Amino acid sequence: MAHTIFVLNGPNLNLLGKRQPEIYGGETLADVEAECRRVGNEFGFTIEFRQTNAEFQLIDWIHEARESADAIVINPAGWSHTSVAVMDALAACTCPILEVHISNIHRREEFRHHSYVSSVAAGVICGFGTHGYPLALQHLAKRFGA
């Protein structure tokens, strides 16, 4: 049985590869999507890969995932540190949630050290660059016995 994984990305990740490459690297979001699809195919996952700069859209996608996903991999970006609404939407999900950050948020500005999303995530991957996404998918494969 194929597992559906929602890979959700928050604000400004559409600028990946252009915005602060010294922090986030040179890969684009299209590169990350291609790698997620490649790794997902290895494990027979169906990948729903999405990015938005609108908080309400991310919340709507989380609600959709609540009904149809087997897991959520989420990089909430700046909303990690500010959005109780995103946290509440994720808290309503019963599927595993993995939080991914490209940079190590604990080595950055103090306000980035706290993530509301972490309180509802099964695990957090940060500081491994865009490789955090396939690491999350690999973890899910083990969890699902794929």
How are the secondary structure elements laid out?
Elements lengths: L3 E6 L11 H4 L4 H14 L3 E6 L3 H14 L2 E5 L8 H8 L5 E5 L21 E4 L5 H13 L2
Parallel strand pairs: 1-2, 1-3, 3-4, 4-5
Helix pairs in contact: 2-5, 3-4
Radius of gyration: 14 Å
Number-wise, the strands total 5
The coarse silhouette is globular
Strand content: 15-25%
Number of helices: 5
For the sheet with most strands, the description reads: 5 strands, parallel
Question: H/E series, N to C?
Answer: EHHEHEHEEH
Uncertain segments are none
Biggest sheet, strands in spatial order? 2-1-3-4-5
The separation of the N and C termini measures 10 Å
Q: What quaternary form is this?
A: single chain
Mean pLDDT: 92
Kindly state the percentage of residues in helix. Answer: 25-40%
- Secondary structural class: alpha/beta
